[in-house]
Amino acid sequence: MLILLEFILVMGKKKQKSEVDVVLIGGGIMSATLGTLINELNPDIDIEILERLDVVAAESSDAWNNAGTGHSALCELNYTPQQADGSVKIDKAITIAEQFEVSKQFWAYLVEKGVIKNPENFIRKVPHMSAVFGADDVQFLKTRYEALTKQTLFKGMEYTEDTALLEQWVPLMMEGRVGNEPIAATKMDIGTDVNFGALTRDLIAHLATKSNINISVNQEVKDIDREDDGRWEVEVKDLKTGEKREIKAKFVFIGAGGHSLLLLEKSGIPEANGYGGFPVGGQWLRCTNEEIIKKHQAKVYGKASVGAPPMSVPHLDTRYIDGKQALLFGPYAGFSTKFLKQGSFFDLPASIKLSNIKPMLSAGLDNLDLTKYLITEVMKKPKDKLESLKQFMPTAKMEDWVIEKAGQRVQVIKKDPKHGGVLEFGTEVVSSADGSIAALLGASPGASTSVAIMIQLLKKCFPDRAKSSEYKDKLREMIPSWGQSLNENPALCAEVREHSQRVLKMD
């Protein structure tokens, strides 16, 4: 009887209603970046940020849930695929390297302005390396090195097949190595380790000081509907109290990680038709031996296994989490129907619609290698995971490592005229024709290139404002190289890199 009475009281309450200019769904690095950009460009805009969990940056942006590398294509071999003729395609690497420099410039601006107080809490200088084993892969890496070092953004990259030099670069990897298997590596000292969880919390904390910006946690978005006046009505449930409310907004951004697809589908915009998602989970091996951790000072990326998704590229990874050095290896991919680490097993079934069944089936049939790879990964026992680590660290012992659950990613599936559907490895912004709602889908290199992605989103969704001279002047103040190619301007590239590194305390 008491439960029934409480139900009647809750149902009888009128929903709270509010109006804002902008609603940002998701309390991760994307919403934090977009909110900060909007606030810098137009401080008067009212913003509401909604996070489903009880804290921000606890899903994809959390330090233990993402790769943590400032993805700048300095070491990630999947951004430079080998072609049938043996050459290496480098256009994607150049684009990502440019975009990461944009991120660093914006972060440096925020440090100088006092928005970020202690940059060393989220960014550190850690060399980026690529390492390969076997004659074929050594030739690939050498070809990659020769192609990249012709580009301004990759000047300073070193290459070696000399085991004596490798013992200096990565002693942990060379210790106990026997046999004559060819090994080669490249190294760039300007690489970074980025804790996107710490960065997100800094940005959100600053936004929370603004009277026209509200950050709400424990808020689950239940529905998104278009109103007759063109605005969007976002229906939200407070997971702590059970109360529901409605927020009307002129613009909605969906940056909810894996849940973005599900929320985009709720909006009903035709541009969302045909998009699907394929969830990929993961695990790390985390070192618990302090002596071993101190022996390694680099992020060393290898080549992915056949069929492996990009976030599963194996790497022996120096990290700094909460000010403490850590060492991870992996990630090992797995499969779950959840779209978030703290999501529901019904996420994948709930995402399947009439408009995306064909693309999803087609993509599945075209990516049987991925399916086989994921099944193999799920079946791996701890000793099998250790064998993968031993290629990078021959002396590895399981007693020095523990298994840590990584984050959940959702790879984008989209319609394709030729194949019916294709699996996209990357990030993609999907927006309505009028630009009033947009969602970010996909994974890597997402967080590292968040500033460039969000600026392009603003240009697409607020075209009139983006054309104004005030907007352009402010962008150049925040990002001195904006509108120019660093790769085609060596002097400018050197200047902005030196400035960013000095301000971010990475000298």
Automatic annotation (TrEMBL):
Stored Pfam families: Mqo (PF06039)
Domain of life: Bacteria
Family matches, as Gene3D superfamilies: FAD/NAD(P)-binding domain
EC id: 1.1.5.4
GO BP term (any one): tricarboxylic acid cycle
Enzyme class: oxidoreductase
Pathway(s) where this gene product acts: Carbohydrate metabolism; tricarboxylic acid cycle; oxaloacetate from (S)-malate (quinone route): step 1/1
GO molecular function: (S)-2-hydroxyglutarate dehydrogenase activity; L-malate dehydrogenase (quinone) activity
InterPro entries xrefs: FAD/NAD-bd_sf, MQO
Names of the cofactor(s): FAD
Keywords: FAD, Flavoprotein, Oxidoreductase, Tricarboxylic acid cycle
Catalytic activity as recorded in UniProt: (S)-malate + a quinone = a quinol + oxaloacetate
Family label: Belongs to the MQO family.
NCBIfam families listed in its UniProt record: mal_quin_oxido, PRK05257.1-1, PRK05257.1-3, PRK05257.1-4, PRK05257.2-1, PRK05257.2-4, PRK05257.2-5, PRK05257.3-1
Protein name: Probable malate:quinone oxidoreductase
Organism: Sphingobacterium alimentarium
